[in-house]
Automatic annotation (TrEMBL):
The lineage of its organism: Eukaryota, Metazoa, Chordata, Craniata, Vertebrata. Residues 330-339 have a biased composition (Basic residues). This is F-BAR domain-containing protein. Residues 194-243, 320-339 are annotated as: Disordered. The keyword Coiled coil applies. Residues 216-243 have a biased composition (Basic and acidic residues). It comes from Anas zonorhyncha (Eastern spot-billed duck). SMART domains: FCH (SM00055). Residues 1-239 form the F-BAR domain.
């Protein structure tokens, strides 16, 4: 803590000195800008004077901004130093009671062996005098000294027990305060993370429950199955191999049940109402084409195994246009034979 305060003061002094340098540099740039302004504005050097003036003004402005930021940094460092001082003072006050208890326990712990040794020596002295047959007066004195030493030992033991109990109590209280501070710090960190998540549009992390019920498990399984079914029903994006070829409208094949005439003769044949001609061959187109497809499509698949279905149907249409099974071709044949 003490070294941190010294380091903070040294850093503040350094930044303050740097700010003073930037201020002097900015003043010097302002002075140069004035000199450039006072220069001759006529002649060849006029644009150069203008460049010097503008550049000096910009440099002066940049260094003034840097000086302001350095002064703001000095204030931040000062606030940090004051905060560290308060923390140091608070820690010192909290540790004062514990330090006192430690010192008391240490002193009593050193006194206890001395009292014990004194008591044993007095008892041994009394036993020695009694065995030697010393006078009763000397024995009484020795006994009195041993009793006093025993009382001193008991007092030392009581002091040691009391000091130890006080020390343990203070340590427990200090540990409790430390855990409370740690818990508050974690709570603040959690609140900060939740706030950041809300600002970013994300939901905060959910705390995992200690026990999952059967209903929750079944609900989770049901959602997973539903999501899997929805994914399976989504049509996959078609590749270029699956996309059918676009039909050439210039060579379009008429659909079943429709009539197409490209020449005057075909138009006359379509509109003809002669009794011997088939007036409505288009009505038989669909059934005839279906029979033609069932008969010839397997053959085309066998002849062209690498073609797609759309390509096979294109070939089938072309054959259908030329096939004598096509009612439209039968109509044209009848019309031509009539002529």
């Amino acid at each position: 803590m003490k070294h941190a305060q010294i380091a903070t003061k040294e850093l503040a002094d350094f930044v303050r000195e740097r700010a003073a340098i930037e201020e002097n540099y900015a003043k010097a740039m302002v002075k140069l800008s004035k000199m450039a302004t006072n220069g001759t504005q006529l002649g060849t050097f006029a644009p150069l004077w203008e460049v010097f003036r503008i550049s000096s003004d910009k440099l002066a402005l940049c260094h003034l901004e840097l000086m302001k930021k350095l002064h703001d940094l000095i204030k931040e460092i000062a606030r940090y130093g004051e905060e560290q001082g308060r923390v140091h003072k608070k820690s010192k006050e909290e540790a004062a009671g514990t330090l006192e208890a430690v010192q008391l326990l240490h002193g009593v712990a050193q006194l206890l062996p001395k009292s014990k040794e004194s008591y044993h020596s007095k008892c041994q002295e009394y036993e020695r005098l009694r065995k030697e047959g010393t006078s009763q007066k000397e024995l009484d004195k020795a006994e009195l000294k041993s009793r006093k030493a025993g009382e001193a030992l008991r007092r030392a033991v009581d002091k040691y027990n009391a000091a130890r109990a006080d020390f343990e109590q203070r340590m427990e209280e200090r540990e409790k305060r430390r855990l409370e501070q740690l818990e508050r710090k974690k709570e603040l960190q959690r609140l900060l993370e939740e706030e950041d998540s809300k600002l970013k549009g994300k939901s905060p992390k959910q705390v995992a429950p200690g026990k999952v019920t059967r209903a929750q498990i079944e609900e989770s399984i049901r959602k997973d199955q539903q999501q899997k079914e929805n994914t399976d029903t989504v049509e996959k994006e078609k590749t270029h191999l699956e996309v059918p070829l676009e039909e050439n409208i210039n060579r379009r094949v008429p659909e079943e049940g429709t009539v197409e005439a490209r020449t005057i003769e075909d138009a006359i044949a379509v509109l003809s109402v002669a009794n011997e001609l088939d007036r409505h061959p288009e009505r038989r187109m669909k059934a005839a084409f279906t029979a033609f497809e069932e008969l010839n499509l397997p053959r085309l698949k066998q002849e062209n195994p690498n073609m797609r279905l759309s390509q096979l149907k294109q070939l089938l249409k072309k054959e259908w246009m030329k096939s004598p099974d096509n009612p439209m071709n039968q109509r044209h044949k009848a019309y031509n034979s009539q002529k």
